[in-house]
Design a protein that fits this description.
By secondary structure, the protein is an all-alpha fold. The protein has 2 domains: 70 residues; 77 residues, no CATH class. 73% of the residues lie in helices and 0% in strands. It has 6 helices and no strands. Helix 1 crosses helix 6. 21% of the residues are buried. It holds the Pfam family DUF1385. Keywords: Membrane, Transmembrane, Transmembrane helix. InterPro entries: DUF1385 (IPR010787). This is Membrane protein containing DUF1385. It comes from sediment metagenome.
Length: 148
Amino acid sequence: VISIGLWKEMRRIFEYHGAEHKVIHAYENGNDLTLGNIKKFSPLHPRCGTSFLLIVMLISIFTFSFIPQEWSFLYKFLSRLILIPLIAGMSYEFLRFSARVKNNVIMHLMIQPGLLLQRLTTREPDEAQIEVALRALEEVLLMEESNA
């Protein structure tokens, strides 16, 4: 991921990723969604998909380590097939829970690995990228409003 981040094209994607996080931070904190307010926020977000994937991976390693090695390939495959949705659900709920207790010291420590990983997948965006992320959020909010 480090070497991918050095490619010019991927760097721009990582900058857009950072812009998305900044806009979401401003929205979640109830700030007016102006460029000046949005720029103040970090490009790292505790409930990022990158953090989600890290949690899925860690829980998977732990869970699958209990699957007996003597099981046949079919049993191992089926057990993983059954457990992956449960692991993904647990990971998602962990992220949701972390948002509710974000000021807890232990939770703060637990989300640090995900934030460290995001240092590889996000970059500081320029103003145009922030504007794109802001327009995307506004569109999503309009769609939610019309579906409510």
